[in-house]
Each structure stands twice: as structure tokens, then as C-alpha cells.
UniProtKB/TrEMBL annotation:
Belongs to the cytidine and deoxycytidylate deaminase family. ADAT2 subfamily. Zn(2+) binds at residues 47, 77, 80. It comes from Amazonocrinis nigriterrae CENA67. This is tRNA-specific adenosine deaminase. It catalyses: adenosine(34) in tRNA + H2O + H(+) = inosine(34) in tRNA + NH4(+). It comes from the Bacteria.
Length: 147
């Protein structure tokens, strides 16, 4: 999660919503990473989780990521939650609940819904304080800049 937070900081420095994600394999080896790139790539799907999952699948040459763990600094949105289910991810670890668009546990629960064909282990609240503080500081700065 520390590496994901560093990626989030880099995304924020580049003007993106500061979210970072990493994928590790069953042995704990880092195999993929991603940071939000929607603004830079002009791509609405360029969320940190999507980019990390794509990279992991390419690294493993397999879209089944059931032996992998995704660490992400913010609870995934509905799009990312759907991609996580489609990837058959083994474990999701996230830091901060997203009270607006969280689709894992906070607003809705896509992985455990009747629409999901895959169940995964979910752990929330890891490095929550540091990730929350970073997100809040970034948004506060953005609001000040818009005034």
C-alpha cells in the first residue's frame, strides 16, 4: 500500500485525482502498477485500478488474476469493481472508503451482488489515515485554486 500511495502522490502532482494501485502475485512480487491518468490520457477508463489490472494481465499473459492481490488507495468505483470481478481477482485491499462512488462496501457492493459471478476477499482500511489525509489535502488545494 505504501507504493500505491507513492503512485497516488505522483498522480496528484500531475493534476489527476490522487489514486494509486499495485498488483502483487501469490509470492508477493510486484507485477503491475497504475495511477489515475484520465486527464493526461483523455480516457474515462484510465483509473489506477484498470491500468494496474491491464498491466498485470499482460505480465502474466492471463486475464485470470485469481492468485493476485490488488492494493488501491481508494475504494473502487462501479467500473473498477466490475473489472475486478471480471479479472477474477483473488484479493482486494483498499485504504479509504469512498462515500460517493464506492462500489465494494460503502455505497454498493458489486462483488457480493447477485450480478457478480466471482467472489473475492476484501480488506479495507489499510493505511487509511495516510491515504485519507493525502486525498483531503489534494482536494482542499484544488478548491482553493478554483477560487
Amino acid at each position: 500500500m505504501c507504493h500505491a500511495l507513492k503512485l497516488a502522490q505522483a498522480a496528484g502532482d500531475a493534476g489527476e485525482v490522487p489514486v494509486g494501485a499495485v498488483v502483487v502475485d501469490a509470492s508477493g512480487n510486484l507485477i503491475a502498477e497504475g495511477e489515475n491518468r484520465k486527464e493526461r490520457d483523455k480516457d474515462p477508463t484510465a483509473h489506477a485500478e484498470i491500468l494496474a489490472l491491464r498491466s498485470a494481465a499482460q505480465t502474466l499473459q492471463n486475464w485470470h488474476l485469481n492468485q493476485c492481490t490488488l492494493y488501491v488507495t481508494l475504494e473502487p468505483c462501479p467500473m473498477c469493481a466490475g473489472a475486478i470481478v471480471q479479472a477474477r481477482l483473488g484479493t482486494l485491499v483498499y485504504a479509504v472508503d469512498d462515500t460517493k462512488t464506492g462500489a465494494i462496501r460503502t455505497v454498493t457492493n458489486i462483488p457480493d451482488s447477485a450480478a457478480s459471478n466471482h467472489r473475492l476477499r476484501v480488506v479495507g482500511g489499510i493505511l487509511e489515515s495516510a491515504c485519507r489525509q493525502h486525498l483531503q489535502a489534494w482536494f482542499a488545494t484544488r478548491r482553493r485554486q478554483k477560487k
